[in-house]
């Protein structure tokens, strides 16, 4: 949709070399834009030779200091810039905003999280286009960063690649005498509230109070830089994007603080040059086939429900037809094989030790489940990229053999029914069963449920479906990510409870959970008229979510329902609420 002036593909400089500065030449050749050239000299272009020939590579890091997921990205970006310059290109670092999901979790700040995806995409698109960059290397870290940069790339569609910031190492709690991570903190909140947070009964010290244990946990859960190490949203997106060919092999499993991550930054310069020379553009890589790979990887590894939202948005940005039904189709055929947190035991740092994501890709390609023939940013196919990678060892407990999976089909299920006529997304690993019936207990906004949990008010015993509504893209506004409830329920050991919402869940959530209910309550969806005591059935075998209320009664209740007055009327969330589409279409802001 952008028609930018640029040199035709295959144009050569006077000395016969291929012109890689197809876009930047608009401002750097001749003297039509002397002001632009004057400013570029000031910014570091050394001479006229470089000015007239070198491609401009934008290096977009989602750096900021206050979050382990992002705090190291400036360092990676500097390494990339150095390597880009050494390969006779101009590297221009810039930054986009990003927020930390874990820091804003459970608070009003969380309403701002999803919409940062759009701001990140807007930033990458804006800088690339406004500054006539010829290529783009993006370095994201926390959850929304990855889909954000890819959407930006799909919009400007100039040669691009992504370097995932990498995930964090696992921490260790001396008082709990076990490895811990960020979700240990969230889950401990549940046992803290229900007074079951204790040191292990293993013959060691058991004298510490719940506050001392909590304090120890908070101090040790995050031992350095890197995104959350489980198969949460950041790693879901990074593994999928690597399986789509947009990042270098190994990018998603290489830990944030490792020399290998630094080497990847150097290799990125070679790869972006290949992309420029071969004119490999994001939309050449973002195809129905590569999205299929993204979904396969997500199902095999047990990825986050947020992936559904982000893949839909990435696909629509790239003009690829992808619908909720594609997720169900892939889920039906792909076994869930990864014993990775949040539902399993291991972390990305562990998977790295046994070969990493390329070794998993190799397994899936050999089984015909992953398409190894898709092109990638290396100029080679995915299968060629991973050919030299080791196969997964036999004696490991992280990735199960395909013929002995944890679950024979995927963990993400698309549900529809009188509660979600426009679709809903369930995460069902099978551990908690595949069917659940219970009486509704309704909460307008997550904070109400949070209060009930903190007060220990959710009883054990009778099956309950906790309904959290007015938390959708428009209603939140911002579709804030929920984790507190699922983590607290897990921590408190409440197995008689399922959670449903028109909002979404943190990738760290597990349990019997259904999110992304469409239409959302604020848009007059049936979830707005559920009442305490209605019986709700979630059936992941027949893919339904329904309440035992007749169509006539739902219509009658909806006739009485009045849309709430929006409580945010100015600022970024008000703009977002006005523009955003529904979750079944990716909750995008530029699809009109
Ligand atoms: Fe950033 Fe989890 S909070 S990846
Ligand atoms: Mg998240």
From TrEMBL:
Gene3D superfamilies: IlvD/EDD C-terminal domain-like. Its cofactor is Mg(2+); [2Fe-2S] cluster. PANTHER family: DIHYDROXY-ACID DEHYDRATASE, DIHYDROXY-ACID DEHYDRATASE DAD. It holds the Pfam family ILVD_EDD_N. Its EC number is 4.2.1.9. Belongs to the IlvD/Edd family. Pathway: Amino-acid biosynthesis; L-valine biosynthesis; L-valine from pyruvate: step 3/4; Amino-acid biosynthesis; L-isoleucine biosynthesis; L-isoleucine from 2-oxobutanoate: step 3/4. It catalyses: (2R,3R)-2,3-dihydroxy-3-methylpentanoate = (S)-3-methyl-2-oxopentanoate + H2O; (2R)-2,3-dihydroxy-3-methylbutanoate = 3-methyl-2-oxobutanoate + H2O. Residues 55-385 form the Dihydroxy-acid/6-phosphogluconate dehydratase N-terminal domain. GO terms for molecular function: 2 iron, 2 sulfur cluster binding; dihydroxy-acid dehydratase activity; metal ion binding. The keyword Iron applies. Residues 398-587 form the Dihydroxy-acid/6-phosphogluconate dehydratase C-terminal domain. It comes from the Eukaryota. This is dihydroxy-acid dehydratase. Keywords: 2Fe-2S, Amino-acid biosynthesis, Branched-chain amino acid biosynthesis, Iron, Iron-sulfur, Lyase, Magnesium, Metal-binding. GO terms for biological process: isoleucine biosynthetic process; L-valine biosynthetic process. One of its GO terms (cellular component) is mitochondrion.
